[in-house]
Every structure is written in structure tokens, then in C-alpha cells.
Request: fold
Amino acid sequence: MTTITDIAKALGITPSTVSRALAGNPRVKEETRLAVKKKAEELGYEQNVVASNLRKGQSRIVGIVVPRIHREFFSNVIGGAESVLNKAGYNVLICQTLESLDAEIKALKTLKNYRVAAVLLSHAINAKNGNHVKEILGSTPLIQFDRVFPDLPGAKIVGANCEGAYKATMHLIQSGYKRIGTLAGYMTSQAYVERLAGYRMALEASGMPFDNSIVYYNTIVRETGYEAAKKAIEAGCDALYSCGAFSALGAVDAFREKGFKGADDFGIVATSNEGFTGLMSPSLSTLNQHPFEMGEAAARAFLEGRTDTQVIPMELIIRQSSNKNNKWLK
Amino acid sequence: MTTITDIAKALGITPSTVSRALAGNPRVKEETRLAVKKKAEELGYEQNVVASNLRKGQSRIVGIVVPRIHREFFSNVIGGAESVLNKAGYNVLICQTLESLDAEIKALKTLKNYRVAAVLLSHAINAKNGNHVKEILGSTPLIQFDRVFPDLPGAKIVGANCEGAYKATMHLIQSGYKRIGTLAGYMTSQAYVERLAGYRMALEASGMPFDNSIVYYNTIVRETGYEAAKKAIEAGCDALYSCGAFSALGAVDAFREKGFKGADDFGIVATSNEGFTGLMSPSLSTLNQHPFEMGEAAARAFLEGRTDTQVIPMELIIRQSSNKNNKWLK
DNA sequence: TTGTAAGCGTTATCAA
DNA sequence: TTGATAACGCTTACAA
Reply:
């Protein structure tokens, strides 16, 4: 591999001048700058970023830690962050935790060891607080998104969880549903706590009782959604607000089993506008969390040195699953 | 940040000994090894991987370059590769090309500049050959997957494209379809060429004519799939083999528009078992490419220094879209 | 405008 | 078994 020393030797100058020339430092004669550029081209020189980073004590890598890369929500966040970061000359090192706290700790250590410029993090569901993060990251800038711990310093990008859940539940109420349960997430996670709060607020604002017996906690995957929906049906519910998309998928499995034919049998609105929600039958009404924009916001928060909390609005998308006038399987 | 020099000073020994102790080098007294480990723990030492990499002239990062990270196929390949690589102590730097050759070139240069241990690459669709890769990567190990150029050196992991397309088409033929078109991809890509060949072989093996007028080239996204399917319907086709999943989605849009009610009106089998294919209505018969396994194989090929081509079988999954006995919207 | 020299933190070689 | 020294490739005061 060609180094700046090779270029320097070839031109009879010193490596420092070459370094300056390539870096666009103005304290170098136009003539030599051109000569250096030309020779670099000629020899196929490519900067050794590792050496450069070591010397400068910083790197142009941003670490992104997410629970699962293949979740559309997260891969879109990553896509958004990457698009902004690439333009700013950064690259992205991605780690999956598969919802394991241990894996999250390991990932953060790894990123710290690479001396990444910043870490964009959405916590594993079984992380109970942010203590591990503080300890590991030290002064490395941290931007949390979606699943955040408010006590950790640094920027946070969150969805408008409370407002979104409120909108979704209110939509169900206004559609005429009388007993609305919820597939709630884990109460260790701020995002799910807020969604539950929004659900509750909508009920109370409409003079409907909040009934904890039809709140199905820790229900975020297909299987648990299926089980919870069966219970909700037995409990006399006629609709559900789901804090996730995959749990809603499980609920639809339960609807099919019961032979429900349309939203007048049972209504559901899910959080997270995963691609499949618009394609399945019945198509699911959802809250679009704008994950790509969330990723862009997280990246920009880092680039601009922000430390505040940004709230990304959620947009209600009404489809078959909450539309009483539309038979699912007509 | 604590360095090995800090540890050395604290213990009154030299950095070299500390380095050896931490690296588990046997040429160090058990006693000092323990002392070093203890002190390292105490001072919260974490290795500076950047410095280590520079000195060793290698890194424990593997670059993965894919067209789009949010495509389920690719995010699953990445997941598979990551799981194997993490266990072996490697980390993963991910780059998206968004199907742009320029972005691919940029990504490869970046990875080279980081002196990554290897590159796992699936080409952008508008890459016509592998010349750019050879030039940029030099001696960096290259593992290509899915979309590969046979003339490039190094391991290749491909789907059983020809065989899979053959199976899918044969399934349509055996289901009684009489005029089967295909949503074909780009003929600059080996994978699509092979799928077309498999399609053709199945027709010819069954005494059916290969008719180039019902081969719809360059059809891999929803919009073009929709347009092509409309043409196929006009051309008197009663079934399609689609080289991708998203183009098949577009075809279903066309079926809906035409008011088709079931697979006896029109049949389709798609390549790529994206999650939505099993959830939509009609559910799509697909070829499962086993992307996770493909990623694992790519990672292992690197770790084991393989340079051969591995073929990952494709599995036919029969669902509503090719099942004549099952009405879609019953 | 350029060169000199030192150093980023680690590891490898050699000598002790 | 340990220490001294140099080097990986680059950047940056400081000096010339």
C-alpha cells in the first residue's frame, strides 16, 4: 500500500508537506499541492484512516446499536442516519443486541474501543436503566432514539408516543367501539409507558373507564399478541390498541380463528407502520413513526451537538382493521 | 482514557510486559499477569483497538456492502453474517449503495481505507462488471453473495437460482397453467440470468415454447411489476414467475385491478420469501432463499479462507397465489 | 512555504 | 521472564 512517505520520496519532499497538501492545508504552495495530488493519484494512494484516526484521537465512525437490524423500523432508522452521516463524511458501525442487555453492554464496549465519534442507541428491551451506558461510554457523545432512558445525558429522539396512542385510541372510540383493550409493552421502557398513558388519556377524555384487566402487558411479539387477543375477546372487548405491529399480527391470527369478518366484529390499530401492515388482510390501521426521519434527526443531533429531546410526530393511517364499513374478506 | 502505559507505570513495569500480559502471551509470569489484569480492571482499561490495528496492520472489522439495508433479504444476510463474525471477534461495518455504482465504489474505497479484514459484497444492480472492485480492494479478501461477478476472485455465495426458478416454473406448469410469463431482472446480473435460464429450462422440459415476448426484463420493483403484469395479462398469460418479491407485489396490484379472484384466474410465484409475502392477500408462493444462512456462509467462507462458490438451495413455499383450489378473497 | 521531530497507543524484535 | 527500542502511518507544533 502506498503511504504518504512513498509520495514524499518520489517527489523529494517530506511526509509532512504531503500530509498538508492532501489535507488541503493553505500553507502549501499551489504547485506542490498539485504535484502531490498527481503523484498520489499515480501511485494509487488511499489514506490509512486507522493511522489518521489514531493520531487525531478521533474517528469518523458512528456506532449504531439496535435491538434487531431486520425490523423494518430499525433498518429504516439506520437508513436515515446513514444518509445524513455519509454526507458528513462519517461511516456507520452497526451492532445488534437481539434484545439482550449483555449484548448491548458488549456492543457499547466494542464501540468505545474503536473510539467511535458517537453512539446512536436504542436499548434492548430488558435493559432496566442506563447505568451501564454511562459507565462504558464516558465522554463519547450518546444519542438515544425510540427506546430511551431520560436520566442518561445527551440528545434523545423519541416518537410522540403519548400523543400517537391518544390519537389511535380516540379514533377507535370515535369509530364507535365500546370496550377497548390494549396490547401494552414493557413498563421498563419509557416509550411503552407513554403509549399506555396516551391510551388511558383518550379513554378518560371520552368518559370511558380505564380497566387494567384489559391491559395486556409485555405483549410485543406475534405469539403473545395472539394469546392476549384471545383473552381480550373473552373479556368482552370489541377493539384493541396495540403498542406494536407484530403483536397486532398475532391479534389478527386470533380474529381469524374466531371467524371475524370485518372491523365491526373487532377493531385494531397498531403502532409502527411496518411494510406488511398495509399488505396483509385485513390491512392494519397503524401509527407511522417515521423511522427514516427519526434516524436523520438522530444523526443531525450528533452533528449539531444538540442535547435536547426531539419528538417525532406519529401519523395515524386508517386502513381496514378499524374501518367498520369495510369487510375484510368480502 | 487509561492506556497500557498507565498500567505499566502503576505497577513499575514496562508497557511491553503489560501488552503481553493482556494478550495472554505465555512468556509472562503468572504472578505479573494477574497483577496486570487486576490493575487494568481497577483503572477501567479498555484496549484502543485503533492503535492495535495500526500496529498489527490489520483490523477486526468486516465491511458489508449491500444495495439496501431495509430489504429483508439483505438485513437477514447481514444478521447471519454478524452472528458468525461476532463470535469470531469481528465487527461489522455496513454500507448501503442504494443500487448506485458510484456509491458502491465509494463504499469499497472507504472500507479499504479502514483496512478492513474482508469485504462481503452484493453488487448494485447497475454495476456491469467487477473491474472497479479488483482495482480498489487489491489484496483485501472479497466474499461476494447473491449478486456476484464470476470473474472476480474469492469466495461466492449464491442462491440456487437456476434450480429455484426451474422448481417454481415447474410448479406452475404442473398446476395446469398454460402460458407462463416471467418478470425477469437485469441481464447484467448473473443471478437474474440464471433465474431466466431455469424458467426456460422448465418450459422446454415440459414441451412448452419459450416466448421472449412474455419475458419482462428489468422488472424488479413494484411499479415495473405492475406495468409488466398488465402487459402479461393482455398477452394472454395465465401465470407469472417473478424473479423478485416486490415486482410480484406490483403484479398483484394489477390482478386486483382486473378483479381476479383466485389463482385459477392468474397464478404467480415470486423469488425471495420476504415477510410480507406470507401475510398479504393473496399470500404469495415464494422461493425462500435462506438469506440468514447465506450470510452465515459468507462469514464462514471468510473465516475459513475459502475461495470456492457455495450454492444455497432455494425452497419452494406454496401459498395462495399459485393454489387454484383456494379463492383469494373468499 | 517547507522541514524537523515528536507522538497517538500498541506490538514485535531483539537483547538482557 | 522482562526491558529497551523501534515501528505502524499519520498529523502538528515549532523551527527554519
